[in-house]
Specification:
binds zinc ion, 46% helix, 9 strands, 486 residues, TIM Barrel, alpha/beta, 6-stranded parallel β-sheet
């Protein structure tokens, strides 16, 4: 070997040593970081209550993977310059570390379950989303096409849903199903409200009612503007608005100009609640959401599928959102301060899963009513408790559906209210899957149906109650004698 070749060999060896050392260092640091930066550890430093926001948790997962995989990429880029023995040993060590990382952080991964891996490979493993069992149960089923007594639907959205219909189509459906009156909660205010009233209530004055709705989606523009809107509610009422809708953004995500969340009992909103009492318009308010929306999204969350696949935007489990109990406590203070204002808690005030608590609230606050829209899923899985609740609070519950219901959707609600059918799908099960269970009919007494379907809403809207003789030709039919459908 001449001098020159020896020198070249030496410099190649030095380069490969440098590469190898660099790679080993990067690997040790990367792998250690991937293992050490756990969400719990980061939460200890970053958050007061030990919880990380969903978004931060996602970013953290990405960071850990980058730390782990970074040395892997370096390895492939530099392996041709490295010493063979280090290449083989280092590569093996890194693969082991990666496997351990997956194993500790993703215990459900298929590598950890060779049998499951084999079954998945052969297409024999069943995913949760594909598990759609058909009940073997054979019991009588009843179809209810028309409600037993006339209905006022206090909670619908004429245009904000996928089911947009013309006023004429809606009236046809209402005639078929015995629905007298439908309320649109998306009226807006001012000119927009006037147009909407003309379009619907103008064409069918006795069939449609429009509520004013106050935009609270994003950050508020200014309190001055907000007060202008509130003062304008007098004109809105004169134009035909029959109530006011407040969306769930209040208390959950509506910010003031300084980017602070506006609390439900913020004193600056008192003017709104007082105004409603002064001009005698009820306020239909959606507060919070069902409790699983605020819980971690894991295998213990009974609405896991809904918030994962169907409506992820309805999950508020990250700590940047307030807890539902806080929102409710704020609302109670409003109820106390504004006893002359009538409030309708949308969706059973999102407390259908805890009717004991809702009953206590109704006992404490005579100015509170609730609507049952979208809640057969919760109510129908506790038919004994719910039936007793409806009988006890028959003057405090209003009928509503949410959305813009078809004949079929109305039939599902009436079946839930009127029959004692067992173990059937709740309305919109397929669209939202609010939880994997079936419901039971409440078989509500005739007098309760009259109140909930019609009279309670009629009173709020200053309409006469149902007259027993003329309006109801039909006597209540015991559920057992109703014709069953094949
Ligand atoms: Zn709604």
């Amino acid at each position: 070997m001449d001098k020159k070749t020896r020198q070249t060999t030496k410099s190649v060896q030095t380069t490969s040593s440098v590469w190898s050392i660099l790679w080993l260092l990067a690997s040790v640091i990367g792998v250690a970081a991937a293992f050490w930066i756990t969400p719990d550890r980061v939460a200890e430093y970053l958050s007061d209550d030990g919880r990380l926001s969903y978004r931060l948790e996602q970013k953290l997962a990405l960071l850990r993977w980058a730390a782990l995989l970074g040395p892997g990429f370096l390895f492939f880029a530099g392996s041709s310059h490295m010493r063979k023995r280090i290449t083989v040993l280092g590569g093996l060590a890194w693969l082991t570390a990666a496997a351990m990382f997956i194993q500790t952080n993703y215990p459900n991964n298929l590598l950890a379950h060779p049998k499951r891996l084999a079954r998945a490979f052969l297409g024999q493993d069943l995913l949760l989303k594909d598990y759609q069992p058909v009940a073997a149960l054979k019991v009588e089923e009843r179809l209810v096409r028309k409600a037993l007594v006339p209905v006022i639907n206090i909670h619908t959205h004429f245009e904000r849903t996928k089911d947009v219909r013309t006023p004429k189509e809606m009236v046809q459906i209402m005639d078929e199903t015995n629905v007298r009156l439908s309320t649109d909660l998306d009226g807006g205010v001012g000119e927009r409200l006037k147009e909407r009233i003309a379009e619907y209530a103008g064409a069918y004055p006795n069939r449609f009612v429009i509520f004013a709705s106050i935009g609270m989606e994003n950050r508020m523009t200014s309190w001055d503007y907000f007060y202008q809107v509130i003062d304008g509610l007098s004109q809105d009422k004169a134009a035909g608005a029959r109530g006011i809708k407040i969306w769930k953004q209040l208390g959950l995500m509506w910010m003031d100009q300084q980017n602070r969340l506006i609390q439900v009992d913020d004193a600056r909103l008192d003017r709104l609640w007082s105004k409603a009492a002064e001009i005698d318009l009820p306020i239909l308010i959606h507060l919070g959401d069902p409790s699983p929306a605020f819980e971690p999204l894991n295998g213990r969350n009974e609405r896991y599928e809904q918030y994962t696949y169907f409506s992820p935007e309805w999950w508020f489990g990250s700590p940047s959102y307030p807890r539902p109990a806080e929102i409710l406590a704020q609302f109670e203070r409003v109820l106390e301060r504004h006893r002359k204002t009538t409030f309708i808690g949308a969706h059973m005030l999102c407390l259908a899963h805890d009717l004991g608590a809702l009953g206590e609230l109704l006992d404490r606050h005579p100015n509170l009513l609730v609507d049952l829209s979208a809640m057969p899923s919760e109510l129908g899985r506790q038919p004994f408790t719910a039936r007793a609740f409806f009988i006890k609070y028959s003057n405090r519950i209003l009928f509503g559906t949410d959305g813009n219901p078809s004949e079929e959707a109305y039939g599902e609600y009436f079946r839930f209210m009127e029959t004692q059918d067992e173990y059937f799908d709740y309305p919109k099960y397929k669209r939202y899957n609010a939880g994997r269970w079936k419901i039971y009919g409440l078989n509500l007494p005739y007098d309760v149906l009259r109140q909930v379907y019609y009279n309670n809403a009629a009173k709020l809207l200053h309409m006469p109650p149902l007259e027993v003789e003329s309006e109801i030709a039909q006597e209540p039919v015991p559920a057992e004698t109703l014709p069953s459908h094949p």
